[in-house]
Amino acid sequence: MTLLDQPELSTKSAAVNEPGLDLVPIANGQLRLAEVIGALSHALDITEGQPPGHCQRCCWIGFHIGCELRLTETELRELYYTLLLKDAGCSSNAERLCELYAHDDLRTKHDFAQVDTNSLKQLASFVLTHAAPGAGLGSRLSHVLNLMRHGEQLADELVMARCERGAQVARQLGFPDTVAAGIQSLDEHWDGRGRPQRHRSDDIPLGSRIALVAQVADVFYQVGGASAARNEVLRRSGSWFDPRVVDAFLRAAEEPGFWTVMAAEDFESRLWALEPSRQILDPTETRLDAIALAFAQIVDAKSHFTFGHSERVGNYAAILATSMGFSARRTAWVRRAGLLHDLGKLGVSNTILDKPGRLSADEWASVKRHPTLTEEILARIGPFRELARVAGAHHERLDGCGYPRGLNDIDISLETRMITTADIFDALTAARPYRAALSIDEALIIMERERGRGIDSLCLDALVSAIAKFDIQAADSVSGA
């Protein structure tokens, strides 16, 4: 039996048959599901190259469209979570997109969001300006020709990966099929020229039709304000968009404060107040773990080099916590921090994550930002604030030479030291762009050199004991990668 086979550390989330993870009425001290999903949606925004709060703003815009369409309370509730989770599959195509364009996937996604795919002129211009922009003429030409010749097939592939994975995440979190379907068909167009199934008109779920309008409206609002958003949505009416949804959007957009509230300091509280039925997530261990696992898998999907990494780190950290006398509840908390420790890597381009050679100073600076992003995102969730500090410090060192803050040993919690130990062990025993996976013995030799400087001695001893007790295999063997 391996460490990852331990039943108390199973990575399988509990089956949830009822939508919304058995939500209960709001009471003091309880946590709304919207707050958790909404806060974590900031990670999805950075993966899509969008300004922070994109999914939340789309939720505001789309929910008001739903109100104008006089949707039922159940339909509004399903729409609300479709909008917050619309980009849940966004990391699944990042590596492939980066390979096809030989360009920063975050920048590519950001710029492509403004392209009308029905316009051959816009598509051609985009390919010419974004395909291998820093490469030589031969390489650029090769990428451009590949994208031009196989554009339809490649676009279907990218959208399919993104939308199918997003729908899976919604189901994993216990949402009904209507939410999953709304996410899966996000890129379908009213005129049948969308992707990946070429559905048209009323064959497209209403949640998808509303979410697409909301998405484009926010993208162009960020670029040129309310008039730019209105003009672009109106221009695509009847092609991309259901005209009835466009009319509802135009009516909603005329309401006082519709646009300005999205920049207000209390915007998030107003957004949470919209949640139909005023229902919240009772923050049980199982329910929060299901969310943590889902977002860990979103992070790990960004590159095949990180496949399963966050889950393994969470499990390794938990076994260390157990062996060092932590309670079952605190051990589960440590595992959750391990699952989410790399959330900020969603904001690092795959040109960096998958680079086989030495990183430049700017690239290294981008990598070193990821723990800060992790902490900032997790700190948006009240019950996760301590977890945010613990997870965000996983690259700090006992000798003060770590990042992002250069903390000394007295400032680094034992829980962080566990996650750091687990993270280093998994990183060494898994393949990376610049080297093959190391054996466990090779990894322990390297880790021993860091004892008392980069790695806590008690945690390292606990890891060695766990390896002796369980049949722990190298990461690539465990993950099947």
TrEMBL record:
Annotated GO MF terms: phosphoric diester hydrolase activity
Gene3D superfamilies per the UniProt record, alphabetical: Hypothetical protein af1432
Alphabetized UniProt keyword annotations: Hydrolase
Protein known as: Metal-dependent phosphohydrolase
Domain of life: Bacteria
Domain HD-GYP positions: 284-479
Entry keyword Signal: no
Keyword Hydrolase: yes
A Pfam family the protein falls into: HD_5
